[in-house]
Amino acid sequence: MISEGDSVPKFELLDSEGKSVKSSDLKGKKYVIYFYPKDFTPGCTTEADEFTKDYNKFKKVGIEIVGISKDDVESHKKFCQKMKIPYILLADTGTDIAKKFGVWGKKKFMGKEYMGIIRSTFLVDEKGKIFKAFPKVKPAGHAKEVLEAFTN
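The chain above was modelled as a monomer; its predicted structure follows.
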């Protein structure tokens, strides 16, 4: 997993509207990149809902939110509509960006091992440097934890 002090790996992915978003588009801004396993699952729904509820607090202090999963554009579009998500969701269908960040790995569920996205969050400064990393995130209360890390 990339660490605090590292630069954000370059990326270009499609958002929920099918528009291209590049890492360079975010240069000069403070932002959150959170990786999550799958649209419409309980933990991911909780996490998305909390970021949505706190979105105006993030915007007020000049912070953008970017969520990334391996779901496709169509899934993200439905997720955004159902959850009223006001921020960017990016489709990393090939998991290339998850691998660059080091959040693609072995997971266990009900005794079975499989490869998937390990729920993680990275806080990025205006220079594109990661100043805080949250590996293996618990969804409940995470948006508040991230906002506090940015504002303290």
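Strands lie at 12-15, 20-22, 30-35, 63-69, 88-91, 104-109, 112-117, 120-124, 130-134.
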